[in-house]
Amino acid sequence: MRRSRSCVMSHKPTEQKFITDRMLGTLTRYLRFMGYDTTSANGLAEGDPREDTRLLALAKEQHRLLLTKDAELARRGDASALLIRSDNVMEQVQQLIDQHLVVRRITMSRCSLCNSELREANTCEIERCEYAPKDWRNLTFYWCRHCKRLYWNGSHGRQLEQRVERELRE
Ligand SMILES: [Zn+2]
Questions:
Q1: Which of 54, 118, 121, 170 could staple 125 via S-S, CB 3.0–4.6 A?
Q2: Separation of 117 CA from ligand 1 center, angstroms?
């Protein structure tokens, strides 16, 4: 199957991992499209009064950097947490690039909904998918086993890739 060089890169196990607070849903999806292992507070049960403490504990246990919009939480987290300054997702990603935590790229290697690693989709999965494009030429398809969701370079990737290339600095 054809792979677009700029779109697909292999995931390195030593890379930075993240956990995000509930304010950073869009950034969470972007980081997953960029191939970074990113869990979210949105995956925890709602209404836990000790959620901040729980997030800090998870960050330490799982060697993740906690990204948060909450200055107090960032201060408590010290080296395990980072205050995200902007409300704009592209500026948020730029902050992470500037701090050498991520590199500018789109990998399409993780599901944007659940963070699972994607694998290449098989013909059966593509054919059964109602929203798949009918013309498969120049496309590579990926599959999330958990969400049963199909991705391809161009579904989210192309537009994101253009934004990342146009709007972000190395
Ligand atoms: Zn998924």
A1: 121
A2: 8
Tell me the C-alpha to C-alpha distance, in Å, between residue 88 and each of 9, 20, 23, 73, 121. Answer: 26, 15, 11, 20, 33
Residue 11 has pLDDT above 70, yes or no: no
3-state secondary structure of 37: coil
With respect to residue 9, please indicate whether it lies within any of the assigned structural domains: no
Alpha-carbon Rg for the chain, nearest whole angstrom, is 17
- Give the separation between CA 6 and CA 106, rounded to whole angstroms: 8
pLDDT digits (tens, 9 = 90+) for 48-83: 999 999 999 999 999 999 999 999 999 999 999 999
Domain extent at residue 71: 18-167
Q: Is residue 4 part of a domain?
A: no
Q: Residue 105 in 3-state DSSP?
A: coil
* Cα 13 to averaged position of ligand 1 atoms, centre (Å): 19
- Asked if the structure places residue 8 within a domain, the reply is no
Q: Are the CB atoms for 22 and 84 separated by under 8 Å? A: no
Does the residue 129 lie in any domain?
yes
CA dist., res. 72 & res. 77, Å (int): 9
Give how many domains the chain has, as a whole number. Answer: 1
Tally of helices (H runs) and strands (E runs) in the chain: 6, 7
- For the chain, the maximum distance between any two Cα atoms, rounded to a whole number of angstroms, is 51
